């Protein structure tokens, strides 16, 4: 069990006396002698559990080595002092905090060197010191983020992975071989190294880090995982973000970064309803509303992705809510398309294509050369294994829009027709007979509509047959209504007879 001993003696006076002496020795080039004198007093303060004095001496050693530009001595003393027997935790924390700002000074000079940089040596020294120490978890997280940024910078100038290297890597992964630690060579190696470094930090468990820094760290984890195509980890990271915090005004930049990653993640899964929800959250940002061009782009995306989403109760509810929001009329063309899906009328695809195709095909959502939503990583592997023809993302979404129009038309036909011939159905849908049948079967399988196809007769029946209980209940209801009407009619007839007899009796009395 770890515990802090009670302070036995105060060495504040001795530390104050020693400081100017060792500073003078260091300026005279006698750094090793200054370090020896500090180390001698540091042993006494450490054994006496004098934390303030020990921390002052450790930071003094670090500062003197830095001022004398002796980085070898700096790395050596950092390692030695952190490993001293019975070293005080708070003193080590202050020593590391003293050394970390030196990385920023060395960064411009040394970080650009791929190997042997003094910046990298100091960074690795500090990461070795912080490894496995819970009281230095915050410093280790920040150092790891700097090292990940370093690898990402090197990835920009490193060679791309060729086909043979990719094939060898995939074979090793398929065999389940253990990863051998090696220096990153290709751009993919550096990106993987950066992502691995960041993912090793369980930042969501750090209570000492403030909300903004923690959220920013998780977003960096998500971004690096997305660069190497590990979308499952991006999904896991998205669940660690507190969306309530993102609604605060000072977190608007983090909110936009988060939902941008969510959009790319949802496009990998073709989850257009989630993309629509993400853009609605982006729209609910003061920064976006203040920029008219940006707001218009967001509104257009909201409408297009809710239309692209497959039909469901949630999608239908969102579709009608958006149609009722007249602020979306700022994008008249897209709003008119939205109205077509809300109205229970047939949409002929050639007409939709002629009215909206020219403008929609210019947007990143439907442009033929658009790379928005290109499958990467695991998703690309899954697509390749299926063996189907892979369309460009823009073309794929245009085909999805065509499918949504056809599905809407089938739902409209099912609402107005009880039976229809296949020939007439294909004419209304502007599709070949085989495609019509496949689309109808898909909607039936998804339980969107009820239909039965009589192929010999060439007839589609949209009327659901009643079960025995339902038929009996309908008959019972009809008989109850009939008896109720008979009883009411009988009562009215009796009332008329009574009123007639009363009137006759009144007239007889008058005559008498």
TrEMBL record:
Residues 267-467 form the PCI domain. One of its GO terms (cellular component) is nucleus. InterPro entries: PCI_dom, PSMD12-CSN4-like_N, PSMD12/CSN4, RPN5_C, WH-like_DNA-bd_sf, WH_DNA-bd_sf. Residues 154-185, 367-391 are annotated as: Disordered. Keywords: Proteasome. Residues 159-185 have a biased composition (Basic and acidic residues). Transmembrane segments: none annotated. Belongs to the proteasome subunit p55 family. PANTHER family: 26S PROTEASOME NON-ATPASE REGULATORY SUBUNIT 12, 26S PROTEASOME NON-ATPASE REGULATORY SUBUNIT 12/COP9 SIGNALOSOME COMPLEX SUBUNIT 4. This is PCI domain-containing protein.
């Amino acid at each position: 069990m770890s515990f802090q001993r009670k302070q036995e003696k105060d060495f504040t006076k001795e530390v104050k006396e020693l400081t100017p002496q060792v500073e003078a020795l260091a300026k005279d080039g006698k750094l090793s002698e200054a370090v020896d004198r500090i180390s001698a007093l540091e042993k006494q303060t450490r054994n006496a559990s004098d934390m303030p004095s020990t921390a002052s001496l450790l930071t003094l050693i670090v500062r003197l080595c830095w001022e004398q530009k002796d980085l070898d001595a700096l790395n050596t003393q950092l390692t030695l002092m952190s490993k001293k027997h019975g070293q005080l935790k708070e003193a080590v924390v202050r020593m590391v905090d003293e050394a970390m700002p030196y990385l920023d000074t060395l960064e411009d000079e040394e970080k650009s060197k791929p190997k042997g940089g003094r910046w990298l040596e100091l960074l690795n020294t500090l990461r070795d010191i912080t490894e496995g120490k819970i009281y230095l978890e915050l410093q280790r997280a920040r150092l790891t983020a700097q090292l990940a940024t370093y690898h990402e910078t090197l990835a920009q100038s490193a060679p791309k992975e060729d086909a043979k290297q990719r094939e060898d890597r995939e074979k090793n992964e398929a065999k389940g071989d253990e990863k051998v630690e090696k220096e990153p060579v290709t751009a993919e190696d550096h990106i993987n190294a950066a992502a691995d470094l960041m993912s090793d930090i369980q930042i969501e468990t750090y209570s000492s880090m403030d909300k903004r820094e923690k959220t920013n760290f998780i977003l960096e984890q998500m971004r690096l995982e997305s660069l190497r195509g590990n979308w499952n980890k991006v999904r896991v990271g998205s669940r660690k973000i507190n969306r309530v915090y993102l609604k605060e005004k000072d977190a608007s930049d983090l909110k936009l970064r988060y939902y941008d990653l969510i959009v790319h993640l949802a496009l990998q899964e073709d989850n257009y309803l989630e993309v629509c929800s993400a853009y609605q959250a982006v729209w609910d940002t003061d920064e976006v509303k203040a920029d008219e061009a940006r707001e218009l782009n967001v509104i257009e995306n909201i409408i297009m992705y809710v239309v692209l989403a497959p039909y469901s109760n949630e999608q239908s509810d969102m579709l009608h809510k958006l149609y009722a929001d007249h602020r979306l009329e700022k994008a008249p063309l897209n709003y008119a398309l939205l109205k077509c899906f809300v109205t229970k009328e047939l949409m002929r695809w050639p007409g939709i294509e002629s009215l909206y195709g020219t403008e929609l095909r210019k947007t990143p959502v439907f442009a033929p050369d658009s790379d928005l939503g290109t499958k990467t990583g695991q998703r690309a592997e899954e697509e390749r294994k299926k063996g189907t023809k892979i369309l460009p993302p823009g073309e794929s979404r245009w085909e999805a829009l065509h499918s949504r129009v056809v599905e809407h038309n089938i739902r409209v036909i099912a609402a107005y027709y009880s039976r229809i011939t296949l020939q007439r159905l294909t004419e209304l849908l502007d599709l070949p007979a085989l495609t019509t049948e496949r689309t109808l079967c898909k909607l039936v399988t998804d339980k969107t509509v009820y239909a039965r196809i009589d192929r010999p007769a060439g007839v589609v029946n949209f009327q659901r047959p009643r079960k025995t209980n339902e038929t009996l209940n309908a008959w019972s209801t009809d008989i109850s209504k009939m008896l109720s009407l008979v009883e009411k009619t009988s009562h009215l007839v009796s009332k008329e007879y009574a009123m007639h007899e009363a009137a006759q009796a009144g007239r007889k009395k008058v005559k008498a």
